[in-house]
Amino acid sequence: MIRLDHIAKSFGGVPVLEDVSLEIVSGQSLAILGRSGTGKSVLARIALGLMAADAGQVMIDGAPMSAKVRRGLMTQTGVLFQGAALFDSLPVWENVAFRLRHGPKRVRRRAAKDAALEALDKVGLDARVADLLPSDLSGGMQKRVGLARAILGRPRLLIFDEPNSGLDPVTAGEIDALIRSLVTDLGAAAMTITHDMASIRAIADEVFLLDAGRARWQGPVEDLDGAKDPLLARFLSR
Ligand SMILES: Nc1ncnc2c1ncn2[C@@H]1O[C@H](COP(=O)(O)OP(=O)(O)OP(=O)(O)O)[C@@H](O)[C@H]1O
């Protein structure tokens, strides 16, 4: 579904990504692991076409990224950023249906609300939550709302940037399990940025350890424990 070939990106002459190649096929869940500031979010933005790479290419369904490909990708992508990034002044259902109400193809209020209720149901929230404001909800419920917004319209690509930040371990585990089941249900390609090894084991099929602008270790999640890489070992021992 998405392939990154030899991506490089610098800021002010300082290289962040030097040579990154990866591929996520539909139905596959890839976790990007790496120390703070290694360029994981930059990589996600380049994958989405929100930031241009200095070198290398992003391919979507075999076609190189272009303005047209990016527009198509936007309608088929669900994103959950750090924090749930909800609009405080809008009720939950309008947050979930935001894309339908404000996108290029506007959907009527009733239909948008129905779509929001269906997405909320998929993330385990009942209709009573729909008319509340985000500030009325717990952190875990807010993440669920963010997930409902991400899966609305059955996207083919899902990007999660630290979906568990700020949650207690039990709630984080519930969100991980939910993410895994949503990705499987949608058959989407998923990229999750996280530092959390428990999360990686729950969510990922494949793991990509980014360090010094390159893949330091890359492989199936089952191979993590046998891996000899010292940096990976430090993540695993946390
Ligand atoms: N638009 C930008 N302009 C200048 N520098 C940037 C920009 N975006 C990112 N950077 C720099 O690129 C580096 C990588 O940032 P990025 O946010 O991708 O790291 P990260 O791995 O996601 O970190 P964290 O785990 O802390 O979220 C940082 O040094 C950051 O300051």
From TrEMBL:
PROSITE patterns hit by this protein: ABC_TRANSPORTER_1, ABC_TRANSPORTER_2
Leader sequence segment: none
Location of the ABC transporter domain: 2-237
Keywords: ATP-binding, Nucleotide-binding, Transport
GO molecular function: ATP binding
Claim: Cell membrane is one of the keywords in the record: no
Coiled coil: none
Cited InterPro entries: AAA+_ATPase, ABC_transporter-like_ATP-bd, ABC_transporter-like_CS
Identification of the protein by name: ATP-binding cassette domain-containing protein
